[in-house]
Design goal:
Blueprint: E1 17-23, H1 30-40, E2 46-52, H2 59-67, E3 73-77, H3 84-87
Parallel strand pairs: 1-2, 2-3
Length: 97
Amino acid sequence: MSCVQRENKNEKNQLDISFVIPAYNAQNHIKRSILSIFDSAGKATVEVIVVDDCSTDKTVDVVQSLMQEFPQLYLQRQPENKGCLLYTSPSPRDQRG
């Protein structure tokens, strides 16, 4: 399993919730899902981990573009397609909330 790509170097923030979004060829829906989480978070401190299962579309590009705006958004890319049951849970060391 690949490590979570974290751009935010300040990892000391306490999190209330970690959201994990499994993704495979989700370019048409992933942005709306991510924005919905951040818009609904209110005062809660959240992180969103997108686990990409070797998408062949622009899913990764969409997530990476949003990472510029949301430092609490992380991308974990699988080296090969494993199917949703095997990639929906990043390792506990990757989740902080």
